[in-house]
Design goal:
Blueprint: E1 2-9, E2 15-22, E3 28-37, E4 44-50, E5 56-62, E6 69-75, E7 80-86, E8 92-99, H1 110-113, H2 137-140, H3 151-161, H4 174-177, H5 226-229, H6 232-235, H7 244-252, H8 255-265, H9 272-284, H10 292-298, H11 306-315, H12 324-327, E9 340-341, H13 353-357, E10 365-366, H14 389-393
Antiparallel strand pairs: 1-8, 2-3, 3-4, 4-7, 5-6, 5-8, 9-10
Length: about 400
């Protein structure tokens, strides 16, 4: 048994202890760390354990170093776990995180496996601007009647989206290449997969994918629906390299997934179709609508600067001869039923749709994503060739 102590005082500073964990077989696992963040006004400290091996840890406390009391057993998932620790009136407490090879069979129910809110977020009926309830945006919604977004379904999809179990060596999640801080895209031109190999194209931002009227996904639109698309990176030999059989077996072995699938679909069965539907529901729930532009729509853009209003007028062709809005139309900034040549080059290094169809007229055609959150999604274009929006726009 191995343990690592953490002495906490009410005015404690953040403390980081690096350690090595022993595995059940006696092997030395990858380096792990225990982090304690200072208490807040309610005397709650935060303990964060980082452990690539996803072991079970026992959290214990003592006031005399002789008698230890177990506070919680924590089964890590995706290499990390975080928990708030309320402190009682005792001025000094010592906590230790204990790894015991004999206690690695903790059942991972939702309550001890995931940091989910007490009640689900409102995925099913988000508040949308008035123009999203009107044409043309209303007609751009690609949600199928067979997979309407529910709070439970999108919550399950969110858990799947951030779960590294979806890759063969449990090192890559969907969120690894579609990062929220970067508009659910990747700040690298190409994304590394499970074994370090790079994707062929830049990871596209996911904001407002629900309103891509053409329905097809990926830069070359090779996926007929979003439900098809979400399973393809999982099976891609560079990205996540899983088979659907291996994936369903792995997820079904986790009791907390059985709970989530039951909440969503009524039974605990883990199937590729259910994984697909849940992931698609979460992706469609990634909605950007509270921008400065949306506020401007309601007040004649009086909140815009002179330069911003000039840019808006140029963008929509009200001044000059720019045709930006031909490809990025409506308040959702998407192309409607059309697909376009982005005009980057000829002859084409990447032929886009033409590489799939073999038709000369399809060469250079690429999906046009929404410009929602575009300031966050650099680098730009399918190959990430432009580092900044200024160069892209010019």
């Amino acid at each position: 048994m191995m343990h690592h102590g953490l002495h906490l005082q009410r005015a404690a500073l953040a403390l980081v202890l690096s350690c090595l964990l022993g595995s059940a077989s006696g092997q030395v696992a990858a380096p792990s760390s225990v982090v304690v963040l200072p208490g807040d006004a309610t005397n709650v400290f935060t303990l964060r354990i980082n452990d690539p091996g996803d072991f079970v840890w026992q959290l214990q406390s003592t006031v005399n170093f002789s008698n230890w009391t177990e506070v919680a057993s924590l089964k890590l998932h995706n290499g990390a776990f975080q928990i708030g620790i309320p402190l009682d009136a005792t001025p000094f407490l010592t906590f230790r995180a204990v790894f015991d090879p004999a206690r690695q069979t903790l059942t991972s129910q939702v309550t001890n496996a995931l940091l989910l809110p007490g009640s689900p977020f409102n995925y099913a009926a988000p508040v949308l601007p008035a123009k999203f309830q009107q044409q043309p945006i209303l007609g751009q919604d690609n949600t199928p009647s067979t997979n309407l977004t529910t709070d439970a379904g999108a919550a399950l999809g969110r858990v799947l989206f951030y779960d590294k179990r979806l890759s063969t060596n449990q090192s890559i999640a969907c969120a690894s290449c579609h990062q929220q801080a970067h508009g659910f895209s990747d700040p690298r031109p190409f994304s590394p997969g499970f074994n370090g190999g790079l994707t062929a194209r830049n990871s596209m931002g996911l904001s407002n994918a629900r309103w891509y009227q053409r329905q097809h996904f990926f830069w070359d639109e090779r996926a007929a629906t979003l439900e098809d698309q979400v399973l393809m990176p999982i099976q891609n030999p560079v990205e996540m390299a899983m088979t659907l059989t291996a994936l369903t077996n792995r997820l079904a072995a986790e009791p907390f997934y059985q709970d989530l699938f039951t909440q969503t679909f009524g039974t605990p069965d883990v199937t590729p179709d259910r994984i697909s539907r849940a992931l698609a529901q979460f992706v469609r729930s990634i909605v950007s609508t509270q921008s400065k532009y949306d506020l401007g729509v309601t007040m004649g853009f009086a909140n815009f600067t002179t330069q911003e209003n000039l840019g808006r007028q140029v963008f929509f062709g009200q001044i000059g001869s720019a045709t930006c809005s031909k490809c990025h139309n409506s308040d959702n900034f998407v192309p409607g039923t059309n697909i376009f040549n982005n005009g980057l080059e000829n002859p084409y290094v990447d032929k886009g749709v033409g590489a799939l169809t073999g038709l000369p007229q399809d060469e250079g055609l690429f999906k046009v994503p929404s410009l929602r959150n575009v300031a966050l999604t650099a680098p730009y274009m399918h190959d990430g060739r432009f580092a900044t929006l200024d160069v892209n726009a010019g």
